[in-house]
Design brief:
By secondary structure, the protein is α/β, with parallel strands linked by helices. The protein is built from eight helices and seven strands; from the N terminus they run βαβαβαβαβαβααβα. The protein is globular, with a radius of gyration of 16 Å.
């Protein structure tokens, strides 16, 4: 039996954490693959931890203080023991029902890394500047790494275990996304599949800002010329 490890970084998501866990639990994968759910709470202070304390049957790791999404992702990756590893945000913008779609190219031997692209699939409208920023960092990614992906900042990234486990990651904040992509593209091609996306606004808890976009660009440049 193969295992898909699902890493869920969480910070102050009391309104969505139970729902996303329920959705991930309910997902039916292909025969022969089981699920491992790893939740990393990054120092939540809004009551998220009270909800997590009632969730059983999954691996839950608590950071003593808030370190950033990258730190939570890195902790989750270290804890993951599956043959395949997937990153899942806790904010309900991404649909776990699409796991099978994401896994298919890997299971068919066509890819070692799969990204779910919001640009290729259906999605709700998001802020224009947020959309433009994503297009810009994706363009810079393709320019620097001679690639042709459409959505560098996507949450849905799936890897064969040996791919992500052999990459040493350093980022603690949202720049974990460009760092992963930069280091993957140095050794692997990324296979994209279209996914749906239900954007939420900043008034609903969205945390990324223009500063993270600038950080992403600097991170892409940094790892283009260093390890």
């Amino acid at each position: 039996m193969s295992v898909l490890s699902i890493v869920i970084p969480v910070y102050n998501e009391k309104n969505t954490i139970q729902k996303i866990v329920d959705l991930v639990e309910a997902v039916k994968l292909v025969d022969g693959i089981d699920k491992e759910i790893i939740i990393v709470d990054d120092g939540s202070t809004d009551g998220t931890r009270d909800i997590l304390s009632k969730i059983v049957g999954h691996k839950i790791v608590l950071h003593e203080k808030n370190k950033g999404k990258g730190a939570a992702v890195r902790t989750g990756l270290k804890e993951a023991g599956g043959d395949y590893i997937l990153i899942q945000d806790a904010d309900l913008e991404y649909d776990p029902e699409e796991y099978v779609l994401l896994l298919k190219p890997i299971l068919n031997g066509r890819a070692d890394v799969v990204y779910g692209s919001r640009m290729l699939g259906s999605h709700t409208a998001t802020h224009f500047y947020y959309y433009l920023g994503n297009k810009l960092v994706t363009f810079i990614t393709n320019l620097l790494y001679n690639s042709s992906i459409t959505d560098m900042e996507t949450c849905y990234k799936v890897f064969r275990r040996e791919v992500i486990k052999n990459i040493e990651l350093e980022s603690n904040r949202f720049n974990i996304e460009p760092e992963i992509t930069a280091k993957v593209l140095k050794k692997h091609r990324i296979y994209e599949v279209p996914i749906s996306y239900s954007a939420r606004g900043f008034d609903e808890g969205k945390k990324i800002s223009w500063k993270d976009g600038l950080s992403a660009i600097l991170t892409l440049i940094k790892y283009r010329f260093s390890d």
